[in-house]
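Work Package 3 (structural annotation) set out to generate three-dimensional models for the target panel prioritized at the project kickoff. During this period the team completed the workflow that converts sequence records into discrete structure tokens, so that structures can be stored uniformly alongside our sequence database. As a representative example, we reproduce one entry of 329 residues exactly as it appears in the project archive.
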Amino acid sequence: MEFTTLPNIKNKVSRVGLGTWAIGGSLWGGTDEQESISTIHRAFDLGINLIDTAPAYGKGESEKIVGKAIKKYGKRDQIIIATKAGLNQETEGKVFRDSRKKSLTKELEDSLRRLQVDYIDLYQIHWPDTKTPFSETAETLSEFLKQGKIRAIGVSNYSIEQMNQFRTVAPIHTTQNPYNIFERESEEAIIQYAEKEKIGLMAYSSLCRGLLSGKMTKDRQFKGDDLRKGMDPKFQQPHFSQYVDCANALNDWVKKKYQRPLIALAVRWVLDKQVHVALWGARKPDQLKEIDQIFGWKLTKEDFDEIDNIVKKIVKDPAGMQFMAPPER
């Protein structure tokens, strides 16, 4: 395992963090609590010490499972819990951005209860709420920090301009953005900004919802409410076939050049782009078995160019991530 440091986080942080969106079940076709807890414990045993969750993952289910897993595992002081706030789920069937002080205060207490802890290591605003002054949101998180209920402040999916507004009132210790071989909207500007301003950079969707896992096939069927069944355009034609073909070509390339699997390439690519922590989503222990393949090698500039050429050659109809953005209040 490789480790790094994040602002305001006392412990060294594993450069691979466990993402728990799928563990929440909602939009992923359900969940198995015991298998999820076993997955979390397996991640800890492999050296992962950062676990990323959110109330929006299964309306609190992910946080509850994470809390149970940590309670059972112990070593709370060695585990870095990152969760989020700013999505209002109080109205049945409706979710919207809400970073008002009243809403955030309730969310924090609910998260602490579900996680069964008295502080959260990294508290992140899930999506920017432009209907609420950024100063109000920043002041609220600053209060949480002073109260000792959180140890670091993070934002997720914020633009540089929005981060600048937030930082006039409170510090931003980390920013979390979608980033992988197929999705690079935040590539140059955000990376340079984070480096210049000494903000920890975290990447979610490192495996692009499984497209870069090395397990995806064109005949894959998605069950229940799995977002890949209809919401995510990358998994609809003509996009899906192109992405699977590209993943197969990348798999052939990395096996030939480095004798590594595609899943390791996907995460290595993110880490070698100056990202501090890449989130690896898993809900079954065996989905973590190739983590050791990420380490002990690095990509060169020539490698990045070759990967870019493969993607440009095969993915002729790229699809974005706009489907993921929740509505404003």
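The mean pLDDT is 91.
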